[in-house]
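Go through this chain for my students:
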Amino acid sequence: MQYSTRASIFTRIGWQLTIPYFVVSVFIFFIITGLIFLNFNTRLNAIIGVQDEIGNTISNEITAYFQNILDDLNLFGTVLNTAHGFEEETSQKSLEVFLAHNPSIVSLTLLDLNGDELLHGGLDSIDSSVFLEYDVLDQIEDKGFFNGEVEFPGDQLPHMIVAVPVNDENNSIIGVLFTEVDLKVLLDLILNFKVEETGYVYIVDKSSNLIAYRDLNLLKQGVNLEYISVVKDFISRKQVKGDYVSFSGEKVVGVWKSINLLDWGVIVELPKSEVNSRLNDLILISSIAIFVFISFILVFLFLFYKQILNPIKDLKNDVLRALSVNDATTIRVSRKDEIGDLAAAFREVVNDLNKARKEVKNYSRELEAKIESRTSELQMRNEDLERFNSLIVGRELKMVELKNKIKELEEKLKVKEIDEN
């Protein structure tokens, strides 16, 4: 009997063993990919979260800074009215003390509702035309104070006019306390915050004018940033979506935070190149992790084929060869593991099969001898029977012949009797 030794082990046992592994591997691969994607988004959100935190911190500090100035001005105005009744000499001394304790205020002027100056201290006094030019009283009635535009007088740092009402005992406005505030604190504040490695912070007002930035020369040019995407979003109070081109000409990722007290916007930007470089590190690590995982799968498959599938294939060929040549010794038992035990078991099976074949062959020979003997005996009996049949047939023929002769003699006898009579 001929047996095929064609190896198809990988398409049978191999797939049955490797398919579950592949399913688990693919599942793990998707988990790793999902974790990498999640980590990617987490890292990106963390970068945006840092920008949010910086924006909120600057917004809160500026709000607290100006709120303290407003509180001090309101308190000073109340003190001037109630304690001194605008008495010039006493009020002037109080003003000097106030300016000494508030270095950010470079000048302070008290005007009545007609625009006449009642009191002044510090640098240049406020022109009464400010009343008409900026609708000071309307703003004061609307939000309780007035803040003008940020200006850069000469080579000085940015200044801004702030005004608060002075009320009488009936809470009616009887004058306006103007002050010119030095905004150097804004520049110091945004310079003190480091946005990753190359990020930066700037502030715009409600008209999209740049009022605080690390480049003082750019500030003095009076740059308007209404064309910048994030500034548009701040003005319209929309969330920033994706990256955009900033006034520096490079792509950035930015967020805005509102300073509601002054209607300003804090813009925190980070160049897209730095964002990509930080995310590229994660991509590189992730790529290495995926490469290692795939390499592990390939090494596993190689070892799996070499240590399991290949020995099984060899065992199959040995068994088929042993069955072809009726020699169990062709089955190699060279391993001391389950596959070696299986090979030994196959060797025993082939030995038993060979013994069974020999027994069947011997029995066949004995059976053939018995059949041959029986056939000869039967043949002899057939010959005897044929001879017996021949004798019986010959006897019957003789008896017929005798009967015929008797009948003939009887007829002759009758004829003779008739003749005699």
Q: What stands out?
A: DSSP finds nine helices and ten strands in the chain. The longest strand covers residues 173-182. The radius of gyration is 59 Å. The domain at 21-276 is CATH 3.30.450.20 (Beta-Lactamase).
